[in-house]
Specification:
The protein is mainly α. It has a single domain, classed as Helix Hairpins. The protein contains two helices and no strands.
Length: 163
Amino acid sequence: MSKRYPLATLLRLREHRTETARMQVLECQRAVAACRDACTVIEGEIRDLQHDRADQRRRLLDPPPAGVPWPMALEQREAHIDLLANYIVAAQQRLAQAQQRLREAERVLDEARTAFFRAKARQEALEKRKDAWRGEQRALEARMDEAAAEDLQQAARLMQVSE
C-alpha cells in the first residue's frame, strides 16, 4: 500500500529529486571533462616521445663526443631509442586505460542525464496535475457557490410565496 503525500510535500520532494539529479549530471560532466583532459595529456606525451625518438634516430650517426668510442656511442644511442620506444608503449597502454575510463564516465553521464530528464518529467507531470487539481477545486467551489446561490433564491421565493 503506497502512502499518499500532500501535493505540496510531493512537489517539494520532486523538486529536490530533480535538483539532485541535475547536480549528479554536473558532477558527471566534470568527471568526463577530467577524463578527456587526461587523455589529451597522455596523447601529448606520446607525441613528444615519438618526436624525441625520431630526433634520436636522426642523430644516431652524429659523431660521438670526444673520448667516447663509436661503438659505445652507437650502443648508448640505440639503447636510448629502445627506451623511448618502451616509454611510448607504456604511454599507449595508459592512454587505452584512460580512454576506457572516459567511455565509462560518458556512460555514467548518459545514465545521469536520463535520470535527470525522468525526474524533470515526473516533476512537470505533477505540476500539471497540481494545475488540473486547482482547476477542479475552483470548479467545485463554483458549483458549490452556484448551489448556495440557488438555495438562497429558492428560500427567497418560498418566503415570498408564504407571505
